[in-house]
Design brief:
Number of helices: 11
Shape: globular
Number of strands: 0
Bound molecules: zinc ion
Strand content: under 5%
Distance between the termini: 23 Å
Structural class: mainly alpha
Helix content: 55-70%
Largest sheet: none
Length: 271
């Protein structure tokens, strides 16, 4: 029951995130939603997460132009993440933290996919929450144990490989935003799981890149047509600049993190 309630909350948060990302975070949620093509106001019954998009078969009611699959996809991902985090056996304050963290991580993913950049304010918000979570779980700052120190070191430790890649390649293989993101992932997961998440991200990234780069240019075109990938991308993707690494990092992190919540591996921070 609570899982369903959290899932519905996630759907609603997801539709806010859609608006936030489309407006590039500028005019925060002010004003009514309008169609991107014809500028007509969208009625409330056409703004119901997922259901409205399906009912309209992904087209605007007024002008019939295509509405990006991004909308229902983000709403569904957020709904699933909220249901999983909300339903996990956590202390109430950890649940609240977990919901905020998953919302920020999914928002960063969508932003990175659309604009191939990660907003600093968002990634530092995530990093701050991840760092605070160490102290929330392990006690007050005055009881600064060696274990806490190790957890705090996990951030820089996880970020170091990506930061090195960024430095060596002068930003061609890896963005600085990805290194910043890895800082928070290290704090969230701890040193061991942070590094695992990093390796896992490279594996997912490699598999997806092979699909996008080599035999099937049609996938890239499909993504572009559906408005999922950066519209600035030309015929096909090139490895470093146009396939953002952030989404792979976050996918790996969320997978690892939510598994830890359910005790699939002994959680270090969230037990
Ligand atoms: Zn329209």
């Amino acid at each position: 029951m609570t899982t369903i309630a959290f899932g519905v909350l996630g759907l609603i948060v997801g539709s806010f995130i859609n608006v936030l990302v489309l407006r590039r975070g500028a005019r925060l949620l002010s004003g009514r939603s309008v169609c991107m093509s014809c500028g007509k106001k969208i009625r409330w019954f056409d703004l119901i997460p997922v259901i409205s998009w399906l009912a309209l078969r992904g087209r605007c009611r007024a002008c019939g132009s295509r509405i990006s699959i991004q909308y229902p996809a983000v709403e569904l991902s957020m709904g699933a993440a909220f249901a999983l985090v909300g339903g996990a056996p956590l202390a109430p304050h950890s649940t609240v933290f977990g919901l905020f963290i998953s919302a920020i991580l999914i928002a960063i993913t969508v932003y990175d996919l659309r604009h191939t950049i990660i907003p600093d304010a968002w990634v530092w918000s995530f990093n701050a929450l991840a760092l605070i979570s160490i102290f929330l779980i392990e006690g007050s700052l005055t009881a600064f144990s060696s274990q806490t120190a190790f957890s705090v070191l996990a951030g820089p430790l996880t970020a170091l490989p990506l930061f090195t890649l960024w430095l060596v390649s002068k930003g061609r293989w890896m963005g600085l935003g990805d290194a910043k993101l890895a800082l928070g992932i290290g704090w969230l997961l701890g040193p061991m799981d942070g590094i695992y998440a990093l390796l896992f991200a490279f594996v997912i990234g490699a598999i997806v890149s092979v699909f996008i780069l080599l035999p099937l240019p049609s996938i890239a075109q499909y993504l572009k047509k559906r408005g999922i990938a950066n519209s600035g991308a030309t015929k096909s993707y090139t490895m470093k600049s146009e396939v953002p690494f952030g989404p792979f990092l976050i996918a790996a992190c969320l997978f690892q993190w939510i598994s830890l919540m359910y005790g699939i591996s002994i959680p270090f921070l969230w037990q």
